[in-house]
TrEMBL record:
Protein name, per record: Signal transduction histidine-protein kinase ArlS
Transmembrane regions: 20-41, 185-207
Occurrences of domain HAMP (ranges): 209-267
One Pfam family linked to the record: ArlS_N
UniProt keywords, alphabetically: Kinase, Membrane, Phosphoprotein, Transferase, Transmembrane, Transmembrane helix, Two-component regulatory system
CC annotations in GO: membrane
Length: 505
């Protein structure tokens, strides 16, 4: 498939719809996920930070509460006593076993106590940040020597009894677990985001490949038709059918329908060319035969000469009428566009054709049954309606047998004008009745030819009626006669009124 695409587009490379779809989906998911992740990350971080601050504040509050019992400036002994710390000889600063303090000092939290001059008198752990504040209280974010973030909280200690400042306490909360949790979060979000984007891009690719199958099939079909033998491909290649329905499947079905119609047109075209050459072959062969005969010996015999010239002229006339009828047929295909505004009175044309036939064929009985009291307008070019009625009346006369009688009737319903031509002649079998509107179709070729018929009359009439959005049908019983019915849509009332008012001006 992609090979075909590349071949046909030469060196032009492009992203397939599926690739665009999947990349788009992947990027979309990534962006949405990133936005949510950042928001989640921010709120989670601030939650964690608040928690860390809370730990530090709790520790500070407890330490200050205990140290405030002293009266003078804080010394190491005061602090140890206040916090109930037990100092072992080996470690004079860091070891402590006090239950209160143990519960206070979490792994990350360090508490250091300073006297009024800012000198360290006690530290629970190594002090990661130098005490710098002599102010009443301070909270800040600092970095230790390894570059790790540390939350620093310091506060003065007031004696409960003297209400004087007796020292300072500094609580440091090294944010290792906070940083570690944040790093983990970043990794989780990244892994999840990328996996989700990749998985959804894959899913989108699979889904689009599945959904776009009809488009691929249409693409293949067009490729096959344009590459190979067009008419053969047109007959054999179709978009496969699917057992589900959606817009693209429907598109494939419509495309198949279009190919079917194209195939029919091409066939009709080929058939037409075949029919025409076949029809022309007989008169040409007859004329050729006569001319050869004259060329060999006939020109000296006035009788033969006369016969041959008459026969040749007759065939030339047939060819002339054949060419004219073919032209009429081809023009009949375009009436919708060319004669869209023509309006004709059915009654007037019907009566005219009827009286003409009455005059030309005095041996026939013509009966007119006209239900139309006033002019009945239909949208058709006048000469076309006349031509159609002449074809039907002419056939009725031609194919009448021992009852030389033709009936014409004119009527209308609420929407249609109806014209019926009935004869009592040889009739048409059921099988043939469905074919007589085809080009060049004649029930009895030889007899029809004798009567001057080319088998195009009904095809022309039928095509014209269809072109004017009408209908033409036949009912016939072999040996008893035929009834041809035409119905043409009436011009709408308001249009009639407009037309009449224009005429009265
Ligand atoms: P043609 O020029 O041969 O009459 P048409 O297209 O007018 O061609 O008619 C096609 C065929 O239909 C005729 O050859 C004839 O066999 C049959 N046909 C047409 N009209 C009638 C009719 N009124 N009665 C019997 N057969 C008819």
């Amino acid at each position: 498939m992609s090979k075909l695409r590349n071949e046909k587009n030469g060196n032009r490379s492009f992203f397939s719809l599926k690739a665009k779809w999947s990349i788009g989906t992947g990027i979309g998911v990534l962006v949405i996920f990133a936005v949510f992740s950042v928001m989640l990350f921010q709120s989670f971080s601030s939650l964690l930070m608040n928690q860390e601050k809370q730990y530090a504040e709790d520790s500070l509050r407890t330490a200050i509460g205990k140290l405030a019992d002293n009266e003078g400036e804080l010394t190491k002994q005061d602090v140890v006593k206040s916090l109930s710390l037990k100092i072992t000889p080996s470690d004079n600063q860091n070891l402590y076993t006090n239950s209160v303090y143990t519960s206070l000092t979490r792994e990350n939290i360090g508490i250091s106590v300073y006297n009024l001059s800012g000198d360290l008198v006690f530290a629970s752990r190594n002090v990661p940040v130098k005490f710098s504040s002599g102010s009443y209280q301070e909270s800040r974010l600092a970095k230790d020597k390894n570059g790790r973030s540390i939350y620093v909280l310091s506060h003065s200690v007031y004696s409960k009894t003297t209400h004087q400042t007796i020292g300072y306490v500094q609580v440091t909360n090294s944010l290792i677990s906070y940083d570690r949790t944040r790093q983990r979060l970043v990794i989780i979000f990244l892994v999840f985001g990328l996996t989700a984007a990749f998985a959804l891009a894959l899913l989108a690719y699979g889904l689009s490949s599945w959904l776009l199958r009809p488009v691929d099939d249409i693409h293949d079909v067009i490729g096959k038709i344009t590459q190979g033998d067009e008419s053969e491909a047109l007959a054999n290649v179709r978009v496969p059918e699917y057992n589900y329905k959606d817009e693209l499947v429907e598109l494939g079905e419509m495309f198949n329908g279009m190919l079917d119609r194209m195939e029919r047109y091409v066939e009709q075209q080929q058939q037409f060319v075949e029919d025409v050459s076949h029809e022309l072959r007989t008169p040409v062969a007859i004329i050729q035969g006569h001319l050869e005969m004259l060329n060999r010996w006939g020109k000296d015999d006035p009788k033969v000469l006369d016969n041959s010239i008459k026969a040749s002229l007759q065939e030339i006339n047939r060819m002339k009428s054949l060419v004219q009828e073919m032209l009429d047929l081809s023009r009949a295909e375009q009436v919708e566009i060319q004669f869209a505004n023509e309006v004709t009175d059915v009654k007037e044309v019907g009566m005219l054709v009827y009286s003409n036939f009455k005059m030309i064929h005095p041996e026939f009985t013509f009966v007119m049954d006209c239900d139309l009291k006033e002019a009945t307008k239909v949208q058709i070019y006048r000469n076309h309606l006349e031509q159609i009625l002449i074809i039907l009346m002419d056939n009725a006369v031609k194919y009448s047998t021992n009852r030389p009688e033709v009936h014409m009737s004119l009527a209308k319903t609420s929407r249609y004008a109806q014209i019926v031509v009935q004869d009592f002649g040889e009739g048409i079998s059921q099988e043939n009745a469905s074919k007589i509107f085809d080009r060049f179709y004649r029930v009895d070729k030889a007899r029809s030819r004798d009567k001057g018929g080319n088998g195009l009359g009904l095809a022309i009439a039928h095509r014209l009626i269809e072109g004017y959005h009408g209908k033409m049908t036949v009912e016939s019983v072999l040996g008893q006669g035929s009834v041809f019915r035409i119905s043409l849509p009436l011009i709408r009332e308001e249009e009639k009124v407009i037309e009449e008012s224009e005429r009265s001006l």
